[in-house]
């Protein structure tokens, strides 16, 4: 089913999303890859405050290429999500409600998705130039020293994704077919 949603997410929107849904996201999402996740985990271990509000937000596992002249961002394809799995349950427990990436997730992430009523979306790998067209604004908001792995605040319009794990734990990678 095709759905258009707003980010940040709310509980009703998440409960309406089912594995296999084609979704277009409009609103604000954040980017964070391996180095940013590691730094956030270190901050939490030191009882520090995270540089972004996680509650109800979506993190896109992305390290964009430099923007060409006249563009707000370069190629914006997803990173393999499993690389963030060791950090993800803690972030979901803190209120993060959505993730965008590619590939399977661990059992611990799946348990945290169900426990917290979250959703995992996949963006099409290899289509970074196409995906960048849905990004209307990009600004670094934390960890600028990490370069492409800095945390960015993106404003997106009709950003295309597929629900690959819904809040009930149904998982497209485990044989649930697209409607």
Overview of the molecule:
It is a single chain. With about 180 residues, the chain is an alpha/beta fold. The chain is about 20% helix and about 30% strand. The protein contains five helices and seven strands. The chain has a five-stranded mixed beta barrel with strand order 2-3-4-5-7. Strand 1, helix 1 and strand 2 form a beta-alpha-beta unit. The longest helix is centred in the N-terminal third of the chain and has 12 residues. The radius of gyration is 15 Å and the shape is globular.
Chain-wise SSE layout:
Elements: E1 2-7, H1 11-16, E2 22-31, H2 34-45, E3 58-60, H3 88-93, E4 98-101, H4 107-116, E5 119-122, H5 128-132, E6 135-142, E7 151-165
Parallel strand pairs: 1-2, 2-3, 3-4, 4-5
Antiparallel strand pairs: 2-7, 5-7, 6-7
Number of helices: 5
Strand numbers in spatial order across the main sheet: 2-3-4-5-7
- Describe the biggest sheet? 5 strands, mixed, barrel
The percent range for helix content is 10-25%
Keywords:
about 180 residues, alpha/beta, five-stranded mixed β-barrel, about 20% helix, globular
Tell me briefly what this model is.
The protein is α/β, with parallel strands linked by helices and 179 residues long. Helices cover 22% and strands 28% of the residues.
